């Protein structure tokens, strides 16, 4: 199943059709506003700005399952992302990425192994999945992999559609 076939809502509660991302290389990242890794928003936004016109987008997925580090309402999350990091990439509704309430998007994503061959649960905030233009997961990067790390940038550049 393509990631782009999964129903999800935008942060503001409106429908977000992931099929609109088909044809674009997408970096799906579970995000949080009060995490030690929150400064990764800077690198994510720089990737968005650098590659958006070449068929790339970041998709932020707020999640409050790790240390309660995304407790805010949709409005608070949107305000934080905008004022603190100038985020221009789309954000989904807050979802669960692990456990019995795992969102269907993450049922698909967590089946994909990382570079060490480990699939399964999301380890922490800011785990990243690079999704191809047709919705297949190309690679999985654990939370401490910086958005602008050489391996992630190389993968983005190798798979850009334009």
Distance between the first and last residues' Cα:
24 Å
The level 1 CATH classification is: Alpha Beta
Q: Tell me the major beta sheet.
A: 4 strands, mixed
Q: Note the overall shape.
A: globular
Strand content: 15-25%
Mean pLDDT: 96
Order of strands, main sheet, comes to: 4-3-5-6
Number of strands: 6
**Estimated structural class:** alpha+beta
The number of helical elements comes to 4
Helix content: 10-25%
CATH superfamily: Glutaredoxin
Tell me what the CATH architecture is: 3-Layer(aba) Sandwich
Q: In terms of per-residue confidence, which ranges show pLDDT below 50 for 5 or more consecutive residues?
A: none
Radius of gyration: 14 Å
CATH topology: Glutaredoxin
Task: Write down the secondary-structure element order.
Answer: EEEHEHHEEH
In quaternary terms, these chains amount to single chain
What is the count of structural domains?
A: 1
